[in-house]
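User: I'm putting together a teaching handout on how multi-component assemblies are represented. Below are the sequence lines for each component of a complex, exactly as they appear in our records. Could you produce the 3D structure of the whole assembly as structure tokens, so the students can see both representations side by side? Please keep the chain order the same as the input.
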Amino acid sequence: MCGIVAGVSRRNIIPSLLEGLKRLEYRGYDSCGVAVLQRGEARRVRTLSRVCALEADARAAELDGLTGVAHTRWATHGMPVIDNAHPIFSGEQIAVVHNGIIENHEALRQSLTEKGYEFNSQTDTEVIAHLVHEHYCGDILAAVRNATRLLQGAYAIAVMCRDEPNRVIGARQGSPLVVGIGKDGVFLASDTFALAGCASRFIYLEEGDLVDINGLDVQICDAQGQAVARREIAFVQHALGTELGAYRHFMQKEIFEQPVAVARTLATIVDLDPLQVGMPREGELADVSNLLMLGCGTSYYAALTACGWFERFANVAARAEISSEYRYREHVSQGNTLVVAVSQSGETADTLAALRYAQSMGEERTVAICNVAASAMVRQSRWAFITEAGAEVGVASTKAFTTQLVALFLLAIVIGRQRGRVSQSEAVVYMRQLAALPDALRNVLAREPEIMAWAEELYQKEHALFLGRGTHYPIALEGALKLKEISYIHAEGYPAGELKHGPLALVTDAMPVIVTAPNDVLLHKLKSNMEEVRARGGRLFVLADSDTGLKSGPGVRLIRLPAWFGPLSPVLHVVALQLLAYHVACLRGTDIDKPRNLAKSVTVE
Ligand code: F6R
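Assistant: Of course. Below is the structure of the complete assembly, with chains in the same order as your input.
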């Protein structure tokens, strides 16, 4: 998704802007650009290529200046062509970079055209540039304030003006923007990670805030124009950081980091209480009888997996909702509800909006499960559990997912305890299982050579079916999602019992069927479903717990995972499926860390 870096520096700002853009590459983009104020001119370069190509272009153009704005664009309005790449100019005077979607851009475009403005792009951003230009009377802050009042939709913007060479204005509404203060300058970016190289203190802007960076001075005012002081935080460098090291791809590295990520997430737990922000008083969740979980993509699958845990341990009615659907449905209040927003980034526009919608419908008890402590969802929620996965760079989520599962499992135990459904001694048993998870994950990772052999057999296929039952059905969905997003193979996840209600028609020897087979109570049912596939000449690839008694045979390839790991078994099986998707994608030669058309952090609807 679009990324912003901007600022005012004591020295040439170009290296800081480009370094910031490189750090934002993980979010996904299809074009990028940078502009600086140089000798009384706004100068820019833009490319449809990677940031390293932009770097070469900036060098060739001899861009050099103290004030600049830069951007990675993930196309929403208008194709990825140079004219649509940011920074977007109005005349030679105003330069804007923007993340978000301006919903009333057509009406604004019309009225600006009538006033004589010419549009050189198809972007909604160009209306912002022209509006700022229209309102400019010598004070860029006032111009941005007046222009943003006319905008509907979501935006984070950074704006500079040729006539005020040491000034950058930022504004946010619905999309994230953070101020970073370093010894050489003051910067703006979409996340703190982008500025890790040049800033050490950070301020998250709130909804409606404007920030005026004037030289090395920073002034923030709220939506009403009142000066405000926002909380400053120091940068925390994650041990699970962003160096690739000996790995070929970040996704591979992040898959292998899972034992440590899970261990670190567990290390944050004191007294079985994962709700760390504004700690709920003992028993505050005791009357919870309904759970509404909100998420998108992989985070939604984490929520779906957890439904079974909440039902089993806490005896609450649990449902997982896709945020983009839930936010437009009628909210039927069920009483005594805990709303759980599940999000790796904590900034996903649909989940944030779904959370706010639930709150507006009177749901007061909300918890965010996020990997980013300072994210909008954490700030929006009453409680938060911060997973400790460290920075996840690969677009396809891996370690964020498994740590979300750990967090949700813990929450189920906490609610179960508070509702008297889980005894202290049972809680101790579950905590021991959690503590054993990192080693069990290492055991699964050790199956990599066998998984690579499967990948050799699968990588030339164009379709695949993934089957699971119970808490492993969402794992089948997640396995299919991983495969499609990084290898571009069409894959579907199904509850195995549904096979004969339709998808069995697809099964031939050309359709590999991948099965996640734990040794749980549904195993004998799953065996029948596998027989249904075999009887139609289908080829099975079965991830089986070592104690299932399942064996390889004609048409059945089997990888033996450790013995059944109890209710946490989904956390192990999904790791094998991540590795499978990864190695299939390697053999197909795709851009694994930045799959086509996808973005890491989806901050627009
Ligand atoms: C897939 C993936 C996405 C995200 C989804 C939600 O590998 O990463 O499906 O899970 O975009 O993102 P978050 O978790 O940041 O809300």
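A couple of points students might notice: Residues 424-445 form the longest helix (22 residues). The CA atoms of residues 131 and 147 lie 5 Å apart.
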